[in-house]
Write a structure and sequence with these properties.
This protein is an all-alpha fold and 147 residues long. It has helices spanning 2-19, 22-37, 45-51, 55-65, 69-76, 86-92, 95-105, 109-127, 138-144. The two termini are 21 Å apart.
Length: 147
Amino acid sequence: MAGNDLGSLLGSLLGGGGQGGQGGGAGNILGALLGALGGGGGGQGAQAAGGGNNPLGGLLDMLTKSGLVDQAQSWVGTGENKAVSGAEIAQALPDEALQTVAQQTGVSPEQAADQIARALPTAVDKLTPQGSLPSGSLEDIIKQQKL
């Protein structure tokens, strides 16, 4: 399943940042989220928001439209990453996507939102080292980081 592959790639990306064992878990939750938003269980959310074959772009659009503009821009930009709460993530994401992520990772939707809130700023920051969202598929973007 693509979500598992994404989870592995994201886990290695996050694991390289000194988070040690948390990288795999964070990668799995973000892989499940991006898989759900990219057309897996959560439907067309990120793609409908303009993500194309890169659900990260659609996710950022979704967060921006939900009032998390400052946070999303700080993660993509080169400055300090602003924090986001699990409640803000839960409000920004489609309910069905969060339910899918929770089911795939074996946690409650609230726990899934909290985990996404902790992992997403670091993941977006690492996937956008030049301060802008690269083009191409998410897998290609992750592989370009030479992990």
